[in-house]
Write a structure and sequence with these properties.
Layout (H helix, E strand, L loop, with lengths): L12 E2 L18 H26 L13 H8 L7 E3 L5 H6 L4 H9 L20 H15 L6 E6 L6 H12 L4 E7 L2 E2 L2 E2 H4 L15 E6 L3 H15 L5 E6 L18 H8 L3 H11 L5 H28 L15 H14 L1
Parallel strand pairs: 1-7, 2-3, 3-4, 4-8, 7-8
Antiparallel strand pairs: 5-6
Helix pairs in contact: 1-2, 1-10, 1-11, 2-8, 4-11, 5-6
The structure holds thiamine diphosphate.
The site of thiamine diphosphate has 15 residues, from β3 and β5.
């Protein structure tokens, strides 16, 4: 029996705006100056929010927080390609995506305060999902329902490089492929799953190729290039809306902490961080917009002042509600009838609270 090739594959990588801020005009997606400014502003808002949130956590005002510093283009570029009735299914590091979707900052701060009000964002933005990879299944389910109902809309799910080692991810992809789910899987390969580097995560050359096994089209993009991320996501969404699920691997870098409980200096070199800072997604778009005459230092200063005011005002708004919430609420909504052991805990809580 002769051997013959029965399948073959290759993975493309897309870059439109290079590290020096040079744009490939032929590949550039159709984005107006106003749209680009909005994307730039959203990336800067997210970065400032993350910096502020780290300091709030250090002062004990909020709980554990996962900053997205360095990953802003991967999220803003992809979320910007969505329509409002498309679903956004996040993991726990998706501040830039939420902001792109119009969710106000105080809602994100509430989440870090443990306030259930944070889950009331709106219909098509799911709440953060902490079990790694679990949200890929939710997105496949949403995408399947969109197919069954004959909707034009799609669902887009975010997850990290570490999540691609979880069974959930493979099951979700397989399900999405078989049932024509309208789902786009966006892997933010930020090089680390807490302290586990990408090289120890998988023997595969790319994470994008993991989709091939499930028969799903896939592409790798420079995740710090907002043009490439937007373009690849827009193309992927178009196919997903027709019941052809897609995957995009956005190659990026987590410049800051995994969460506020982490100390990355223990497992990675500062030199590596500096190298990636040279490829910073916000700086890269800024260089381009300055060259195009769309931005200058004065406009940037003005924007930064507005963002500073927004962050301060939103933090204040988050604090107001904290005082109005009863911590006993956390006992209320898990069961329709409270089991005896939970009743005991509630009584103990009341005693401690006094
Ligand atoms: C099922 C599960 N296992 C372990 C954890 C603990 N944990 C939280 S984040 C994380 C790493 C996730 O890495 P990755 O998927 O690359 O996403 P990133 O945090 O880098 O954005 C782990 C192991 C968890 N939350 N859920």
């Amino acid at each position: 029996m002769p051997r013959e090739e029965v399948a073959s594959f290759s993975i493309e990588k897309l870059q439109v705006l290079d590290e020096e801020g040079e744009l490939d005009e032929e590949l550039a997606p159709d984005l107006s100056e106003d749209e680009l400014l909005e994307m730039y502003r959203t990336m800067k808002r997210s970065r400032r929010l993350d910096e502020k949130a780290i300091s709030l956590q250090r002062r004990g005002e909020i709980g554990t927080y996962a900053p997205a510093i360095g990953q802003e283009a991967a999220q803003v570029g992809s979320a910007y390609a969505l329509e409002q009735d498309d679903w956004m299914v996040p993991s726990f590091r998706e501040q830039p995506a939420y902001l792109t979707r119009g969710v106000p900052m105080h809602v994100l701060i509430w989440y870090a305060m443990g306030m259930e009000e944070s889950g009331e964002s709106d219909d098509t933005n799911m709440p953060p999902s902490i079990p790694v990879g679990s949200q890929t299944l939710h997105a496949a389910g949403i995408g399947w329902s969109q197919e069954i109902k004959g909707d034009e809309s799609a669902s887009l799910v975010y997850f990290g490089d570490g999540a691609t080692s979880e069974g959930d991810f493979h099951e979700a992809m397989n399900f999405a492929g078989v049932f024509d789910a309208h789902t786009v899987f966006i892997c933010q390969n930020n090089q680390y799953a807490i302290s586990v580097p990408r090289e120890q995560q998988t023997k595969a050359e790319t994470l994008a190729q993991k989709a091939i096994g499930q028969g799903i089209d896939t592409v790798q993009v420079d995740g710090n290039d907002i043009f490439a991320v937007y373009k690849a996501t827009e193309e992927a969404l178009e196919k997903a809306r027709d019941g052809d699920p897609q995957m995009v691997e956005a190659v990026t870098y987590r410049q800051s902490l995994h969460t506020t409980s982490d100390d990355p200096k223990v497992y990675r070199d500062e030199e590596e961080v500096e190298e990636w800072k040279e490829k910073d997604p916000i700086d890269r778009l800024e260089i381009h917009l300055k060259e195009e005459g769309v931005l200058d230092e004065e406009k940037i200063d003005e924007m930064e002042e507005e963002i500073e005011d927004e962050v301060e005002e939103q933090v204040e708004k988050a604090r107001e509600v904290e005082d109005a919430v009863d911590a006993e609420d956390m006992f209320e909504h898990v069961y329709s009838e409270m089991p005896p052991y939970l009743q005991e805990q509630l009584e103990e809580f009341r005693e401690v609270k006094g």
